[in-house]
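This entry is listed below:
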Amino acid sequence: MSATLPHAHSDIAAVPLERADDVQYRECKILLKAELFSKPSSFHKFWKIVHRTAKSLKISMTKPEKPVSLHLREIVFLDTPKFRLYNNAFILRKRTFYRHGRPEPNYELTLKLRSPDRDAVARVDVRPLLPCVNTVKFKEELLPLPNEIGGIRMIYSHGCELDTPNLILTQRFETICQVFPALLRAGAKAETKLSEVNGTVVDETLANLGLLEFDSKTVAKSNIAVWRDHHTKADLIGEFSFQLKFERLEDLRRKPRELSEEFFRKLQHEAEEWVQLGTTKTSLVYRLGKIPVNNHE
């Protein structure tokens, strides 16, 4: 997608750049082949590759539980029939948590604006009008190159998470914009209904792999997420990720920044047989159907 975000509506909810949210997370992501994670031991096998790569760079890493503890969640993406949200760089996602094999009543609703243009993403206020608890996360995301092992490209994600908001999600675009005014930018007709993207419900299996210590003050959580189609049980995609947190991106010291990037590049080569070239997990779900997608993350 282009670096300049589209402007479909003049009433966009935005904040002046000088008051914009700071980048406080740096998340590194590598897509993986979901079919290679057919059993719990597969996660530990991949941990060994991660651990070996980290050790070669003098990065310490904690051990996960054995067998690795797996957590199940359910994910759906919501959009208009012509994907006006995603084609305007927005992602609206519902994540339901499971406990002892059963869905919990609470869920997480997340709105993201994602683009390579940091300033454009920062200027958009993703907060809700709802009087509810919300968490804003502004991330710099490092991804491999779409068609090549060992590279790095960056996109920026400005998101807001709501805990179990009291609203019906599959309703008119006009109504969801009253929750998230930033979505007015997508420019869909007021009466347009939202629905599950490509009718797809994703079963997400999450495994926490342990902590990576890049220096005494910079520690990152790492995990693997594997996505499968809830209805067909078909493998979709996997992803290894680790995330650094700080007050501002400028506060991230040079050593852990450069070391984490070196680790990210090297792991792509060390785990090459596991790596799935592509863009993002979300992009894959949007491209499961026949509706044109103009967002090239």
Observations:
- The CA atoms of residues 115 and 155 lie 5 Å apart.
- Residues 17-286 form one domain.
- The chain has one domain: 17-286.
